[in-house]
Write a structure and sequence with these properties.
The structure holds three protein chains of three kinds. Chain A is an alpha/beta fold. Chain A has helices spanning 9-18, 23-41, 49-64, 107-114, 157-164, 181-187, 221-231, 276-291, 307-322, 341-352, 355-367, 373-397, 420-425, 431-436, 465-478; strands at 44-47, 76-80, 118-123, 170-175, 190-193, 213-218, 262-266, 295-299, 400-404, 440-447, 453-460. The N and C termini of chain A lie close together (11 Å). By secondary structure, chain B is mainly alpha-helical. Helix content of chain B is 32%, strand content 6%. Chain B has helices at 9-18, 28-44, 75-78; strands at residues 85-86, 89-92. Chain B has a two-stranded antiparallel ribbon. In chain B, strand 1 and strand 2 (89-92) form a beta hairpin. By secondary structure, chain C is α+β, with helices and mostly antiparallel strands. Chain C folds into three domains: 4-281, no CATH class; 292-404, no CATH class; 413-470, Orthogonal Bundle (Arc Repressor Mutant, subunit A). The longest helix of chain C is centred in the middle third of the chain and has 20 residues, at 215-234. Classes of the chains: A alpha/beta, B mainly alpha, C alpha+beta. Chains in contact: A-B, A-C, B-C. At the A-B interface, helix 9, helix 10, helix 11 and helix 12 of A face helix 1 and helix 2 of B.
């Protein structure tokens, strides 16, 4: 890529529409970079080179023929391996789905393709989204561009790396307990988890349905706003999607600074337990916000104390249910059952699912089993309600909440295997917004002394993705954290 | 709050059967440790229950689908990912109740 | 007299009359080759989400209201988990602790009232066929919408269980909720039955019976189980809590599993489906769509038209029959005559031609005008039946058909005289009898003329001509 080449989705679409570059050229540059860096990083499970070239060709022909182009015309986009695309494979990072091809396309991908996006391939992820490092993938680990011995975070680690390594300006992920925000933070890119239901889940291979959200990662908040406007909105294929909301791109530049904005700092998400560098970056972020006119307000979310426990109870119970369909009958891996059906199913599942997935299924089976679940649903629901009430109270006094996205920066590959508690704590700051179904945005905001990126998480009230993105845009216009790259 | 069940081998086996999974002896202690953590988390939730009376916000009801039948999938597509089939049916080992 | 009282409760699954499935747009008619009526949703493919069918919910509400159950303002779908190859997602979407409707009852012809416990909506499973090469899985039926209706244990005999089901079937058919065809599996029944000593108020140990695929089978299976439990108790034994499968061909039930092996379904509120919120307005709408129920209509027909019990039963067996009857009566048809024509002509012709009343070629209005022609003496009954058959094939008014068939009644002596002479020639003994003063014998001669004239002859004119020809004035 020459230095003059556009690097954001919005700029690429503008350049393709203006004819200063072509979709084919943009894609060629993207594929070139992928070919050069993939042997090291392994962000992709599969690159759809032929499919992408065909799509880019169509866009260039459309332009030549004077057909109006979509707002993402010619923009290469990476897609997490848990979103289905008709005729293509999707494995959710699992052996269970090796070779599986979907007959239908996820709504979000349909909408992006209709807007002219060029889908370049599927990215690596923790198996079924269950992990925070992308190490539980059946396809092997993905490496962080900021250090090849570092994890990229997870579960959307491949998508985060695809943006961080400049393969694509935009990548799609999914976020159940932090799976977009946390890898975005660890890889130094911006990541948006919209509120639950804002983007249709149709075509997303489910982990925990009441928490799953499709999100995106990009360098710039402007690109995230562009993406959200195309991806969001009600969908007949997802009865939990919607309602329709006004587009956010149009209002993105309504603020010049942060005057009149109250940023709450919940002490439960900003207290002890933070890595020293992360704490320092958080203080700098608050200082930056204050210097732009924001008022910084102390606040509290008492129910957060129980959030991780609640999250694991709900997520595993729903996962055990969602993953019951993988029985070796209609699709997916099958092992011989010596003529017995139950043996066939047990062997297929034991061979198809990795260790972490099997553990979570067993935990979820326990959490939902008879004699145990009776109090569980009530309690989990009550906790979620309490957490929502806590957030509502906080939003009565402030407009956005701020905390680090992850208590720790990227850590070495393999280090969480010994202590799964570390892995669970990775989610401590992100699961509250997931449980409450709220929109949250992670922005790169500084680095550790040894150069590992640190991300800050902004959380907004329900349906306030617009405010989240407006504030993010102001911050990115006044700082350059989001422009810091690991690789030349 | 139900009494915490004893995390014995029988419970583990029961869970494994319900989930159609095989637990290897090496993984047994890891599973037990995680279950204990879940139980601890559960106990911690006890105090929370009385505080909240508002129902959790859920997806607001959307208009339901109109009752119109559409073209079903071609059989070739239905069976495209099937590990084994016979005629237009999926084929599995003769059913034996576990 | 038995020393025990039989206690029976029923769980009935009824297929709702929708075009598409409960959560997918695939056709709901589970016909055709295996897996030819299947959508990605029915396969439980990765990434699919359920899309609830408006009509299914409406029909379930209609069933609830028809049975006097209370539709709940908020109900919820839940997942019931078990592994079986006929269950594509590893769970069935059903309703658990928050069903669509509660309460209601069914009154049997003997006046006994059986209360209902609840009514909920759920999806059907697929079909398995066991063969030598393995088990074949067909998912055509998977996802078909069902309501499950659970009775209280208020039934006291297998005959009452039979009556309950036949009454339930009648109401659900009448209201258009379901065709309730047991042969096609659109009505299926599980039963639980226990015995307790006469005078006791504590129910005995109950046994569940599965695979009851016809009304007769329900009664037979319950009678068998009643005898079996009586024998066990009479011998001082204890009835085991278990599930038994009925094998009709053997005329016996066999144990399937004991209560201790009862499955753990791990119910979970379905996070993919918003709660079902039903407001007063939609309940009122369903109530309006429900219309008059069969019991009320029967009462009205008895009172307003003075019809016999048999007639009322036929007219109220289906809503369309009563509607058709009332339309004919409204345009002037005499109720009893209309009813007779429906029973003797309309329904047989309809079945013969495999039609329903909506597509029946003769409208109630035309039948009523045909009856008016009869009353006015313009057509004989024999000729009217001919006109009726003609109208089945031709889009005509009855008067037009009469002319087209040349059946308009004739009073012209010149036309009738040859028929009269032919009758006397054919039946000389009858003629002699009349001549001898036996007037009754005139009927045979009249009948001959009517047949020979294909019903066109006016009976009064024929009689005058016959008397004149047999006993000429001396």
């Amino acid at each position: 890529m020459t230095s003059a080449a556009p690097t954001t989705a919005a700029a690429i679409a503008r350049a393709v529409a203006a004819g200063t570059t072509s979709a084919a050229e943009v894609l060629a540059a993207s594929l070139h970079r992928i070919a050069a860096l993939e042997p090291t990083l392994h962000a992709f499970v599969e690159v759809w080179a032929d499919r992408a070239q065909a799509a880019a060709g169509r866009i260039d022909r459309d332009r030549a023929a004077g057909v109006p182009l979509g707002p993402l015309a010619g923009v290469p986009i990476a897609v997490k391996d848990n979103l289905v695309l008709a005729g293509e494979q999707a494995s959710a990072g699992s052996r269970m789905l090796a070779g599986y091809r979907s007959p239908f396309t996820a709504t979000v991908l349909e909408r992006l393709e209709a807007a002219g996006a060029v889908l370049v391939g599927r990215t690596n992820m923790d198996e079924f989204g269950m992990g925070s490092t992308t190490e539980t993938s059946a396809h092997g680990p993905t490496r962080n561009p900021f250090g090849n011995n570092l994890v990229p975070g997870g579960s959307s680690g491949g998508s985060a790396v695809a943006v961080a390594a400049d393969y694509c300006p935009l990548a799609i992920g999914s976020d159940t307990g932090g799976s977009v925000r946390q890898p975005a933070a660890l890889c130094g890119v911006s990541g948006l988890k919209p509120g639950w239901g804002r983007v249709s889940r149709s075509g997303l291979i489910a982990y925990a349905s009441s928490l799953d959200c499709i999100g995106a990662m990009a360098r710039s908040v402007e690109d995230l706003a562009l993406w959200l406007d195309l991806a969001a909105g009600p969908d007949a294929a997802d009865p939990t999607s919607g309602p329709a909301a006004p587009p956010v791109s149009a209002s993105l530049t309504t603020r010049g600074d942060l005057r009149g904005l109250r940023i709450g700092v919940p002490w439960e998400l900003n207290g002890p337990g933070l890595d020293d560098d992360v704490a320092r970056c958080k203080d700098e972020a608050l200082a930056t916000a204050a210097s732009l006119g924001a008022e910084i307000v102390d606040c509290s979310l008492p129910a957060v104390a129980h959030a991780v426990a609640t999250y694991y109870l709900i997520a595993t119970a729903e996962a055990a249910s969602n993953l019951a369909r993988y029985d070796g009958v209609r699709y997916g891996l099958r092992r011989d059952g010596l003529g017995r059906l139950d043996v066939m199913t047990t062997r297929s599942r034991s061979a198809g699912f990795g260790d972490e997935v099997q553990l979570r299924i067993l935990l979820g089976t326990f959490a939902s089993s008879h004699g145990w679940s009776e109090g569980f649903h009530d309690r989990a629901r009550a906790l979620r309600a309490q957490l929502r009430a806590d957030f509502a109270q906080a939003f009565a006094r402030c407009d956005l909440l701020l905390s680090p996205t992850s208590p720790v920066p990227a850590f070495p590959l393999g280090s969480s295997n010994d202590d799964p508690l570390t892995m669970y704590l990775c989610d401590a700051l992100t699961v509250p917004a997931s449980l409450a179904g709220l929109p949250a945005l992670s922005l790169p905001f500084g680095a550790t002394t040894d150069g590992r990126p640190v991300g800050m998480q902004f959380t907004a009230a329900a349906q306030r993705e617009d405010l989240l993105l407006q504030v993010g845009h102001v911050l990115q216009r006044h700082t350059d954290h989001h422009l810091r790259r690991a690789l030349p | 709050m139900p009494n915490p069940p004893s995390l014995d081998r029988a419970l583990m086996q029961h869970l494994a059967e319900l989930a159609r999974l095989h637990i290897s002896p090496e993984r047994m202690p890891i599973l037990r440790q995680r279950l204990e953590r879940i139980l601890a988390g559960f106990s911690a939730l006890q105090g929370v229950i009385t505080a909240a009376s508002t129902p959790i916000a859920e997806a607001s009801p959307r208009p339901l689908r109109e009752d119109r039948a559409s073209e079903p999938l071609p059989v070739a597509t239905v069976l495209a990912n099937a590990p084994e089939s016979a005629g237009s049916s999926f084929l599995v080992p003769r059913v034996i109740d576990a | 007299m038995s020393r025990f009282v039989t206690v029976i409760g029923l769980e009935v699954h009824v297929q709702l009359a929708t075009a598409s499935k409960l959560f997918s747009p695939a056709p709901a008619a589970a016909l055709g080759d295996p897996n030819t009526r299947v959508h990605a949703i029915d396969l439980g493919l990765p990434g699919v989400l359920p899309r609830p069918n408006q009509k299914a919910i409406e029909l379930a509400m209609r069933a609830s209201l028809a049975l006097g159950a209370v539709v709940q303002p908020l109900s919820r779908f839940a997942r019931e988990h078990y592994f079986y190859p006929d269950l594509p997602k590893g769970y069935q979407i059903s309703q658990f602790d928050q069903p669509l409707a509660l309460g209601g009852s069914i009154t049997l012809p003997d006046g006994h009232r059986c209360r209902l416990h609840r009514l909920h909506v759920e999806e059907d499973a697929g079909k398995l066929t066991h063969t030598d090469i393995g088990t074949l899985v067909d998912l055509n039926r998977a996802g078909v919408p069902l309501v499950e209706i659970v009775s209280e244990p208020d039934l006291r005999s297998p005959a009452q269980a039979h009556a309950f089901l036949s009454e339930l079937r009648h109401v659900l058919r009448f209201t258009g909720v379901s065709d309730c065809d047991m042969e096609l599996g659109s009505l299926r029944c599980d039963a639980n039955i226990s015995l307790m000593p006469v005078g006791s108020e504590t129910f005995g140990t109950k046994v569940e019976l599965k695979n009851l695929n016809s009304l007769k089978m329900v009664q037979r299976a319950l009678e068998y189980e009643e005898r079996r439990q009586t024998a066990v108790l009479a011998a001082g034994g204890r009835v085991a809590a278990e599930t038994r499968g009925w094998h009709d061909e053997l005329g016996e039930s066999r144990s399937q599993r004991s209560k201790e092996q009862a499955p753990d379904y791990r119910y979970l509120p379905d996070p993919d489906l918003p709660p079902l919120v039903i407001d007063e307005a939609s309940i009122a709408e369903a109530q309006a769509a429900l219309g008059e129920l069969p019991a009320a209509r029967s009462e009205r027909y008895r009172a307003a038209f003075g019809l016999s019990e048999v007639d009322v039963r036929v007219l109220c067996s289906e809503r369309a029959i009563g509607d058709w009857f009332e339309q004919a009566v409204a345009v002037g048809g005499e109720p009893k005559a209309v009813c007779n024509w429906i029973v003797a002509d309309v329904l047989p012709a309809m079945h013969e031609r495999n039609l329903d009343l909506a597509t029946f070629p003769i409208s109630p209005l035309r039948l009523a005008s045909l009856l008016r022609l009869c009353d006015a003496g313009a057509v004989t009954l024999v000729a009217a039946k001919k006109v009726f058959r003609h109208l089945l094939e031709h889009d005509l008014e009855p008067a037009g058909a009469l002319r087209a068939l040349g059946l308009d009644r004739t009073t012209d002596p010149a036309v009738l005289q040859p028929f009269v002479l032919a009758a006397i020639a054919a039946l000389p003994e009858a003629a002699a009898a009349v001549r001898a003063g036996k007037d009754k014998a005139l009927d045979a001669l009249k009948g001959h003329v009517m047949r020979a004239s294909t019903g066109r002859a006016d009976p009064a004119v024929v009689e005058t001509l016959l008397r004149a020809a047999i006993a000429p004035p001396s």
